[in-house]
Amino acid sequence: AEAAAEQLRLYRRDPGGWRGCRSTGEVAVSWRPSTEFAGNLYKGEGILPASPQNVWECIKPVAGGLRTKWDQNVKDFEVIEAITDTVSVCRTTTPSACMRIISPREFVDVVVMKQYEDGTMLSAATNVEHPLCPPQPNFVRGFNYPCGCFCIPVPG
Question: What is the pTM of this model?
Answer without folding.
Answer: 0.89
